[in-house]
Amino acid sequence: MDRHDARDDQPELAPAAVITGATQGIGRALAEEFAKHGHTLLLVARNEEALAKTAREIASAHDVPAHHAACDLATPEGCDQLVEVLRTKGLYCESLVNNAAIMTAGFFQDQDREQLLKIVDLNVRAVVDLTRASCPTCWRATKAASSTSLRWKGSCRCPIRRLTPPPRRS
Ligand SMILES: NC(=O)c1ccc[n+]([C@@H]2O[C@H](COP(=O)([O-])OP(=O)(O)OC[C@H]3O[C@@H](n4cnc5c(N)ncnc54)[C@H](OP(=O)(O)O)[C@@H]3O)[C@@H](O)[C@H]2O)c1
């Protein structure tokens, strides 16, 4: 099956909030918010040890399943790996938080080319790739939660989730 195919027709898969860059900072805070609302998590970053620790801590604090996937999202292989981890864990992406990003400082003309292209890879390419891969399943949930949409250069419309985690626990 193409990795971008919808999982809509596979009801046995469990929903998960996929949060990139979840080991620290804003990503970790958002992971805590989703967990507080009872969502199963799939936390993503590169450092396996930090991820496992974060997942353990959040799972025990909020009594939710917290999975993790160590992937370098600045590479196409890393994005593919995340999609594969979802599949092997029997999950589908219900909410996607594209949080992982890097920045640099200083004048544009002084920047290292490799670093600038890495920023594009993580902050732009991975966001497009993961959003596309998650669209079919996020779309179904989004229709119930939010009518916000994002227009991509006038050619396709893409749902985006509100930042407040949708209610799960009653
Ligand atoms: N902090 C601010 O003041 C601020 C202001 C405006 C916007 N933002 C934006 O908010 C987001 C989070 O910022 P933050 O300051 O909370 O970030 P942060 O503390 O630097 O954390 C970055 C997270 O992303 C992960 N990450 C970095 N490179 C990655 C890669 N190639 N693949 C997968 N994961 C990767 C890091 O883990 P690993 O290193 O283990 O991969 C870490 O979990 C970013 O998009 C940032 O641009 C932040």
UniProtKB/TrEMBL annotation:
Family recorded in the similarity comment: Belongs to the short-chain dehydrogenases/reductases (SDR) family.
The protein, known as: Short-chain dehydrogenase
Domain of life: Bacteria
Record's keyword terms, sorted: Oxidoreductase
InterPro entries given in the database record: NAD(P)-bd_dom_sf (IPR036291), SDR_fam (IPR002347)
SUPFAM superfamilies, alphabetized: NAD(P)-binding Rossmann-fold domains (SSF51735)
Pfam families for the chain: adh_short
CDD domains assigned: SDR_c
GO molecular function: oxidoreductase activity
